[in-house]
Design a protein that fits this description.
Number of domains: 4
CATH superfamily of the largest domain: DNA polymerase, Y-family, little finger domain
Order of helices and strands: EHEEHHEHEEHEHEHHHHHEHEEHE
Structural class: alpha+beta
Number of strands: 12
Strand order of the largest sheet: 5-6-1-7-8
CATH class of the largest domain: Alpha Beta
Number of helices: 13
CATH topology of the largest domain: Dna Ligase, domain 1
DNA sequence: CGACGTGTAAC
DNA sequence: CCTTTTACACGTCG
């Protein structure tokens, strides 16, 4: 059966929220930052609004670089306030839930809605639902969003990206070919830098080039599964359902004040991160079986060490294990210093379906 | 197959 | 000089 899927993307969400609550920056270029705290401007850009993007400022870039680009210009730099953004996000997700029976929130500012039923399998009705959603979000929160509509999540996502901000794009199956014809392969959702480089070497520039390419060569370069996935994506094929998935892991990362290989200093940071993560674990009511140490060295290389244990929901009780993982890592990498550390709990067992002792 | 570690990608 | 959090695929090992 043909589904109808909506993808909703809130426009430069963090920056828009800050503009709404600080009239003095309204209409300006706004850059939301994650400061790492190791020096005045160390950290990265989380969100740049459209005015800031015109200056070449993009999410992910170092704050120091963004400030250079903003030199002599009127640009507002603000620290991010995730807690506040989450509160508003939750309210918006409730609006979306009113308009569909199947929703999948994929991030703080993005959701997929399966409106097959609600639209009676009719594109026009789906478009009306999208318009209602845009209107409600504008009226209730003062925000704009971009909406994409397609027969699957991939196409809906690509559609929402097509016109931003405040866009509404429908890509019917008959239009997929045309839409993908001249689309650079790198713009396909899920095709990042590494994949693009390999595609480039194969002479593949557009989604159409990819869709028409020899499967065997793709399999050689990417392996069977990824080759199939890439071909499907280039053809606008995606059968994955809209479904809210249970969380698989909870992690916390932090940046150390200085690069160090001192166990005590690093473990202090880990304890700090654990306090915050403990709250999250309690809120989500999860128990876990695997605990990991995440390290990022001065060369920004990420490594992990993990241990699987008896199921627990008590993070404090596994901190000694994290400490031993850290000691092991430092022994095995005595030449390295760490820039950042993190911890991760995974291999979840959810409370509602948690087995009691009697079940074993 | 489960555990472990790495890489890629997106936000 | 470079943040945070999550998902998922894949290779390897026992």
């Amino acid at each position: 059966m043909q589904r109808i899927i909506l993808h909703i993307d809130l426009d430069s969400f963090y920056a828009s929220l800050e503009e709404l609550r600080h009239e003095n920056i309204r209409g300006k270029a706004v850059v939301i930052c994650v400061y790492s705290g190791r020096s005045e401007d160390s950290g990265a850009v989380s969100t740049a609004n459209y005015k800031a993007r015109e200056l070449g400022i993009k999410s992910g870039m170092p704050i120091s670089l963004a400030k250079r680009l903003a030199k002599d210009k009127d640009v507002a730099f603000l620290p991010n306030d995730i807690e506040y953004y989450r509160t508003v996000s939750d309210r918006i997700m409730e609006i979306l839930e009113e308009e569909t029976d199947i929703m999948q929130q994929v991030s703080i500012d993005e959701s997929y809605l399966d409106v097959t039923k609600k639209s009676n399998e009719n594109w026009n009705n789906a478009k009306k639902i999208a318009e209602i959603i845009k209107k409600k979000i504008k009226e209730q929160e003062g925000l704009t969003c971009s909406v994409g509509i397609g027969h699957n999540k991939l196409v809906a996502k690509m559609a929402s990206k097509h016109k931003k901000p405040d866009g509404l794009t429908i890509i019917k199956d008959t239009e997929i070919k045309k839409f993908f014809e001249n689309l650079p392969a790198s713009k396909i959702h899920g095709v990042g830098g590494k994949t693009t480089k390999v595609l480039d070497e194969l002479g593949i520039k557009t989604a159409k080039d990819l869709a028409d390419f020899d499967v065997n060569i793709l399999e050689e370069k990417f392996g069977r599964n990824k080759a199939k996935l890439l071909l499907d994506k280039a053809r606008g094929i995606d059968d994955s359902p809209v479904e809210q998935k249970e969380r698989q892991q909870i992690s916390r990362l932090g940046t150390l004040k200085e690069d160090t290989d001192d166990v005590v200093t690093i473990f202090e940071k880990i304890k700090e991160l654990a306090t915050d993560m403990k709250k999250k674990i309690e809120k989500e009511k999860v128990s876990f079986r695997t605990i990991s140490l995440i390290t990022i060295d001065t060369a920004l290389k990420t490594q992990t060490r993990s241990e699987t244990i008896q199921v627990t929901n008590d993070l404090d009780s596994v901190l000694p294990i994290v400490k031993s993982l850290l000691e092991r890592f430092l022994e095995e990498n005595s030449e390295k210093k760490l820039r950042r550390v993190g911890i991760r709990a995974s291999n979840f067992i959810y409370k509602k379906e948690q087995k009691t002792l009697g079940d074993f």
